[in-house]
Fold:
Amino acid sequence: MANLKELSKHAERLTGGHRLCAGCGAGSVARQTLIAAGDTPVVVVSATGCLEVSTSVFPYTSWKTPFFHSAFENSAATCSGVEAAYKSLVKQGKIKDEPIRFIAFGGDGGTYDIGLQSLSGAMERGHRMLYVCYNNEAYMNTGIQRSSATPKGATATTSPVGKVQQGKEQLKKDLTAIIVAHNVPYAAQSIIGNWNDYITKVQKALNTDGPTFINVMTPCRLGWGCKPEDSMEMVRLAVDTCIWPVYEVENGKYKLTLKPRGEKKPVTEFFKLQTRFKHLLKPENAELLASIQADVDAKWDKMLALCGENK
Amino acid sequence: MVKTVFSKGKIVAKTGNEVMAEAMRQIAPDVVAAYPITPATEIVQIFSQFVADGKVPTEFVAVESEHSAMSATIAASVAGARAMTGTSSQGLAYMWEMLYIAAGLRLPIVMAEVNRALSAPINIHGDQSDTMGARDAGWIQIYSENSQEAYDNMIQAVRIAEASKLPTMVTTDGFIISHCMEVAEVYPDADVKEFVGEYKPERALLDYKRPFTLGAIDLQDFYFEHRFQLAQAMRDSKKIILDVASDFKKKFGREYSFYEKYQMDDAEVAIVTIGSAAGTTKVVIDELRKKGIKAGLIKIRVYRPFPAEEIAKDLSKVKAFAVLDRADSCSGTFAPVYLDVVAALYANCASAPKSENYVYGLGGREISMEHIEEVYMKLDAIAKGIKKASTQLEYINVRIK
Structure:
């Protein structure tokens, strides 16, 4: 458990004044990640995306810690290179042997899709790094195109609603399961709408000697079509509806870290507040909606079983 | 009996790949990130053994692709490490995006590149299509005729890259040089180490007490100036390349410049080419000279930056020349080296000699002494006014016309 009083003692390493939208979750992900690191030196790398372009517009930067970006699909490979340099220079006595933590950020497009190979390589090679996927379920920076993290039925500009299609036709990829299959010592899903869950996980990951991964559901009020002031509540509803299970896998052991507030809610509670899902609530899409609910239910049951929880 | 040029040098029999790996061992970079690809695989394979045997302090990152190889090399360089990699052909093509980024970020990365044909059709043999395609990426390009040059170029490349803040690739012709056992002189580790010197980056990501942001988005207000600075650095690197060559000569005895001139002092007909074909050309020149044909050669070593003024000055003295390109840019006109050469002449000279452009050796296709002699004989006829120079791209030893 993270302690707010303790966290408040550390200097902020992501300054305000960046150019992310009001209600965007990406800035909160970056800020909370750095707060979680406390006073430990960190080097941050990022994939191309909203977080990167909005926090580093030359000659300005929001980062009061070393920050590097080079391309879209290579955040994990980039972090590998920095970590390798650290190991080499420490080993040769060229720099002091003191802990520096390495954090890579990428959106879901840069992680689930174009950066998957780079991420898999880095996880397999075992670099000590934390990879954070701030997952807002589509390519938001380029204008809301579908990614493999976009849920079934959601509309996006490359999976639009039309006369013969009702949004994205495929289920989203289970990336966290793929990373777990790499046998990394720590992998987790979280939401940015629960600071304690997220920060606790970041701290666990940073204290782990090996590759770690956190997939944090992060609202994009433009892409999701919700009110900026509601965006954090959106991801909490994703937990309440069991659309986004929040759990961790520590050395192979699954643990559910957040449960729905009260009774598990139907997916429509999440859908009705976001324009990307509004077509699913029409009577003619009842069958599609039911299939989505069935899929969420089945996956939730599977997750409960993995975590040793009762239905 | 082959003699050493450097008093402490040692004569060895090594392939191009072996000497490049040997140079890397002596340079002992902090980080190497690489991925296997024929015919460059051996370089990183041999180097991995050096790592496994504890002969170098290098952190070797066996990445899952060439894109990640260049990404990790870039990141290591930004972090403050001396970083190197190696690749060829499809691997270089897969790095494409990152090549431009390495240059744009002004990182002194050195890459061993073995020239190989590009797919399709897939072919593993030597031609220069791969690096010719990368000629505008902002990398210094140094080509090698043989193992000795490959070794010497690798050692010089570190100094050149770090002084110019430009990534530098050193190439050999795939198989012809990479896998051909040749006599080469290697220098003692201590002397190479002394020549290369310590890497002292101006700033490093790992120096967390002096944080900086690199790779920021650069819009209409700054991008142009930064790209201008990159182009200017390429222009300025010419002096650095000559200075390093001069130091190299002082230290090890071998002479290098932007290009090598062979029998050019009184040449009336000349061939301009790059890489291993130069060796064959020299033999042909020796034969032709016996017959009274004043043939000469310009073998380009440094293709980027392109030594335009210098080449124009040397070529303007001949009556006719041909550029032999081992790459075809499919431009509808001529091949890359020829275009640079004629632009250099047009910009620097009031009048220029007659010229022709040939593409040869794609996909490792043989080029023989007879082929080269034929080119010289045509040039001789052009010089004497007997034949006209072709106005289109010509091909050597290809069955389809």
User: Anything to note?
Assistant: DSSP finds twelve helices and eight strands in chain A. Chain A touches chain B through 46 residues (CB under 8 Å). The longest strand of chain A covers residues 101-107.
